[in-house]
Amino acid sequence: MMKVVDKMLDWENAGSLKLLKPGYSLREPQLLFRKIEDEEIIYQLEKLKQKSTVNSQQSTDKKVEESKSQISNIKSEIQFDDFAKIDLRVGTIVAAEKVEKADKLLKLSVDLGFETCTIVSGIALHFKPEEIVGKQVTVVCNLAPRKMRGIESNGMILMAEDKSGKLHFVNPDNKIDEGSSVS
């Protein structure tokens, strides 16, 4: 609204009291914003409601998809012959101890009836060693040995994980002979 040339609005003139003097005439005032009529507000609110409904539906669909993928998380299909190669046996944990400098690992000695094998398992956050001695477990016996923290592990204990992330042993309901085959 000021009748000034652009040079007067440069940064070096900021705060100058000489820009406007008493009696300075301004241009005719103009509105900074146009008036928004009620009909336009109602129209825009309806658009937002429709968009919200669509987004809500999409969000629900997305949540359903995510929960399906989390629940199922199914690995790729294998043939029966692949599954038949796995030797699952029942064993009894006869000794358990924490692995030094490893928060999650326990070193287990598992009696399989025909041998006692050492298995390193990442279950230390869920179980104390003294709690699991004597527990019957299901073991993958023919898994290739693997060294963890310098200890050779000769098998794997089967575990199930619930929704809260807690681990549970996959084991028989009743005590059965060590080395019994699981099929």
Relevant terms:
183 residues, alpha+beta, OB fold (Dihydrolipoamide Acetyltransferase, E2P), 2 domains, six-stranded antiparallel sheet, two-stranded antiparallel ribbon, 3 helices, 10 strands, elongated
Description:
- This protein is α+β, with helices and mostly antiparallel strands and 183 residues long.
- It has 2 domains: 6-65, no CATH class; 87-182, OB fold (Dihydrolipoamide Acetyltransferase, E2P), CATH 2.40.50.
- The chain is built from 3 helices and 10 strands.
- The chain has helices at residues 38-72, 80-84, 129-132; strands spanning 88-98, 106-111, 116-121, 136-140, 146-148, 151-153, 156-157, 159-161, 167-169, 181-182.
- Strands 1, 2, 3, 4, 7 and 10 form a 6-stranded antiparallel β-sheet that branches. The protein has a two-stranded antiparallel ribbon with strand order 5-6.
- A hairpin with a 4-residue loop joins strand 2 and strand 3.
- The longest helix has 35 residues, at 38-72.
- The protein is elongated and about 110 Å long.
- 12% of the residues are buried.
- The model has no long low-confidence stretch (mean pLDDT 84).
Encode the helix/strand succession as letters.
HHEEEHEEEEEEE
Unreliable stretches (pLDDT < 50, length at least 5) are none
Give the count of helical stretches.
Answer: 3
Assembly state: single chain
Structural class call reads alpha+beta
Give a count of the beta strands, DSSP E runs of length 2 or more.
10
User: Over the alpha carbons, how many angstroms does the gyration radius reach?
Assistant: 36 Å
Determine and state the CATH class of the largest domain.
Mainly Beta
